[in-house]
Amino acid sequence: MADLQSEFRRTQIVPALALALACVGAASMVYYHLGLFIPRSLQVRASIGLGNGYSFGGDFYPVWLTTRESRFWRIDLYSDEVTRQTQTGVFGHPLEPGNKLNLPSNYRQYAYPAFTDLLLWPCGLLDFPRLRIALTLLLVALTAISVWMWLKALGWDLHPMWIASLIILTLSTYQLLDGFFALQPGLFVGFFLAVAAFALRSNRLMLSGSLCSLTLIKPQVTALAIGFLLLWSLSDRTRARFWQGFLATTTALMIGSLWIWPHWVGEWIAVLRGYRSYARPALVNLVLGSTFPKYTAPIVIALVLIVSLVLMWKARQFDQRTAKFWFVLSLLLALTTITLLPGQAMYDHFILIPGILLVLRHRAQFHAKGPVPRILLLIGAVVLFWPWFSSFVLLVLRPLLSPEVFYSIPVFALPIRNVASLPFAVIALLAWNWTNGVGIPEA
Q: How many other C-beta atoms are found inside a 10 Å radius of the C-beta of residue 408?
């Protein structure tokens, strides 16, 4: 009887309690973000004359604008005219020299490969206010499916209530709430990548390669992962269908986009050069700050990328049905967040999902390995769960605090204070596993 009660608690009560706590934490974070943080941000935008456009959905506006205009005539996606129209839609007016934020005239310029418009052309069929609602629902649904796909790719079978808890917590992270509000196109990349991983685990290599090609609408997000998978595919003739699927889809996208916009590649590269003038540097740069010489961060990034190449080479023969394969892929994705992504692109940190899931799944093996991984686990847990906990506490204490205290930066920013720390915590755990191993059995 005691065994039955213990089993019941393990299989029913504990998952139900976890789901309830996840709902409370998620509700707290959603209210904080949408009910407090976003309104405060909009007030700041309005105070500097940038609040008369589309803040909700602003990241998707350039894609919508170009897909809609392209229905009637062939436009230059990267032209100054399109940039001014985008700024008018997002801010209410074009940016003039000497604006209050000293933003460059090319701010919010269309910065995606031209084939992005080929993939997302149906979006131009709706007016933007209606598209925002439909796209929000779609991106939330696709992201929820992505979590489930990653669980399948990693071979982790969970109780449905545990799966629901993971999905609810994932959807309520600051990074994804920010992405949902901005309607960040990168969330499509997250979905394509998750389905590609599931297809890879299922040995549907051509489908996986084709889906990886679709992630190139934001190539910086998946560059290291795709590099590894292509090397992995080329290292064994039985895996050739992956690179064949990737090459076929990429070729089709390039031919189609070049037929419509013959000069887009050179124009896009020029846009990327200009993007560096206003984008925040990678997280490595932000962490090092002004304490170290300016050349320190580029050297660190170069070293990390070299280590990534070594990691790819050593793991090129790993079978995709083993845990070590997914640990390598997850580590490469995590390293991407601190080296290749702009510092403000927290919404692209959905690529940390597989790494976090792997650590959660194998937490017992990490814990049993010694004090160092235990400390790393503790730090990682604090960093991971802090936003939900602190947002709940902040809302509970709000009636007791004066508006001046509540909206002061040290207090109001508590739930998002350590968002930039999460990639480093995940990298530390995944790197520890690579260098020391945690005795993880094959998946």
A: 12
